[in-house]
Write a structure and sequence with these properties.
This protein is mainly beta. It has strands at residues 15-23, 31-42, 47-58, 63-77, 83-97, 108-109, 113-114, 126-139, 144-150, 170-175.
Amino acid sequence: IYLNPAFAGSVRCPRVALNYRNQWPGLNKTYITYSASYDQHVDALGGGVGLILMNDKAGNGTLNSTTISGIYSYNLNVNRNFSIRAGLQATYMQERLDFDKLTFGDQIDPRYGYIFPTQEDRPNEKHGFADFSAGIVGYSSKIYGGFAVHHLTEPDQAFIVEGSSPLPRKITAHLG
């Protein structure tokens, strides 16, 4: 369901997924991601529902992003052998920046290293925004394929200058 919200409820029984990713663990200040998801088919809704929780820590927690997503997918049986599933996802993302873990050029003394206070503007260290995604999957018993578009509204991620950092759309296509 992370790849495409239309996959929510695509199997008849409830599904739980847990993920952990530690990118470049040999380096200090690595990227660590935790996620958990749940989805299931609900006959009364004509499709599936899902939930995704995710936390991403970049640079030893310098930038921390937490998201919660709710998903609904509708299933349309075109005929006995082919079905289409369309899904919508609503997400709330909160980002936190630990400004004290950042270093800037004006803090450097040529002889002693980072000893000076910075003159950089201190931004809001926390902000949140809504994000929306949609996807579609067509499938039979032998083949499936679809695509999804994430960040439909291109929400602003800026900490300092509002409107200066839109989150670009992500388009995925898949076939199996």
